[in-house]
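User: Teach me something about this protein's shape.
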Amino acid sequence: MLDMKDVRAFLGGALVAAGIVGAAWASDTRRVRRSRSRLHRTMVELLLNAITAGDASTARHSRRVANLTDALAPPLGMSRGERSTLRVASLLHDMGKIDDRFFDIVHSHGPLTPEQRAEIKNHPHESADILGPLERIHPGITRIVSSHHECWDGSGYPEGLEAADIPLAARLIAVADVFDALTQPRSYRGPLAPEEVLGRIREGSGTQFDPGVVRLLDHPEIWEYWREIARGGCLEEERADEDDGGTGGKVAEISADAPAPRGSRASDEG
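Assistant: First, the predicted structure itself:
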């Protein structure tokens, strides 16, 4: 017959041993996770550096777009994983523009020719192809990146997707992309006021942009944060312009669409 004291002693020892093993396992798991996290951040930074090497202005634009989209995520109830994927997709949405065939287009200082406009429409697919290996870490990222120039009414590119067929993250990037592009200087124009750009975005609600995403800009905290990013971006571009002898902050037109006049479709020159 088993002595209950011996049983309790045995169980107590087993629990202590299990606790020690569990703590060691948890500690090791945390180390692995931290290591993976550092590796992931390093990889994203590497890709951003690749963009910077070919076009520093595009890298600055990408970082601002990531900050803009991140402010839109909390009201939508996005999970931690979804927000992580959104940020990486925002940072790397223009990755495809490092392709050599886009160099002259990206660095052009005049209006694009019809041929150049047609060619630049390939950059979402190029970005998605480059980011393919990230799918295991960020499921759906290639579809997000390839869809950031799609429009709510189906008139965008490259697939002509519409409404909810466009990934939510891509719809967020679409609005942030245009906002940053228009509030920052270009070689052919100065920056537009955030309020004017907001007006254009609202005019594009239901056609170019998801109405639900546009309504997020009615939140005072979000709008003020977006305005601060626009102001900070202008200062950043001015400093880059000075450092580069008058050309750094005024980037070329890289859109498939020319800047839209007031009252028409908002430009997606980002």
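Now, about its shape. The longest helix spans residues 4-54. The two ends are 79 Å apart (CA to CA). If you'd like, I can walk through any region in more detail.
User: That's plenty for now, thanks!
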